[in-house]
């Protein structure tokens, strides 16, 4: 298993709008395609105006196939411009669980 961690810095004053879009429309498109949402988080201390969301995949190929399916989905293509106008910066990492991690 791998976990994809996506960290977005949200434009000032746009956090509520971003979260509303994800809550009301985005997850309904993403979750059936991407599968296992590990978590969706905002920051309270440290770097502010950040959102982190994590998705679990069987492996990099599973991630590649699912991300491509999402990119090809017409609903996602129509939704994405409204979402990204709220994002100032994006960072993406692939996390590999250790042999003693509860998530493997």
Description:
The protein has 104 residues and is an alpha+beta fold. It has helices spanning 15-34, 60-72, 74-84; strands spanning 2-10, 36-42, 50-57, 87-95. A 4-stranded antiparallel sheet has the order 2-3-1-4. A hairpin with a 7-residue loop joins strand 2 and strand 3 (50-57).
Write out key terms for the chains shown.
about 100 residues, alpha+beta, four-stranded antiparallel β-sheet, 3 helices, 4 strands, about 40% helix, about 30% strand, globular
How are the secondary structure elements laid out?
Elements: E1 2-10, H1 15-34, E2 36-42, E3 50-57, H2 60-72, H3 74-84, E4 87-95
Antiparallel strand pairs: 1-3, 1-4, 2-3
Helix pairs in contact: 1-2, 1-3
Number of helices: 3
Helix percentage? 40-55%
Strand order of the largest sheet: 2-3-1-4
Distance between the termini: 6 Å
Compute the CA-based radius of gyration: 14 Å
Question: How would you summarize what this structure contains?
Answer:
By secondary structure, the protein is an alpha+beta fold. The protein has three helices and four strands.
């Amino acid at each position: 298993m791998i976990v994809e961690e996506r960290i977005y810095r949200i434009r000032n004053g746009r956090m509520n709008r971003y979260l509303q879009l994800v809550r009301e429309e985005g997850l309904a498109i993403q979750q059936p395609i991407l599968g296992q949402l590990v978590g969706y988080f905002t920051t309270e201390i440290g770097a502010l105006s950040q959102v982190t969301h994590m998705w679990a995949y069987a492996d990099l190929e599973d991630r590649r196939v699912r991300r491509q399916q999402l990119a090809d989905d017409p609903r996602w293509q129509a939704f994405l411009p409204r979402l990204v106008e709220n994002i100032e910066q994006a960072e993406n990492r692939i996390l590999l669980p250790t042999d003693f991690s509860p998530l493997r």
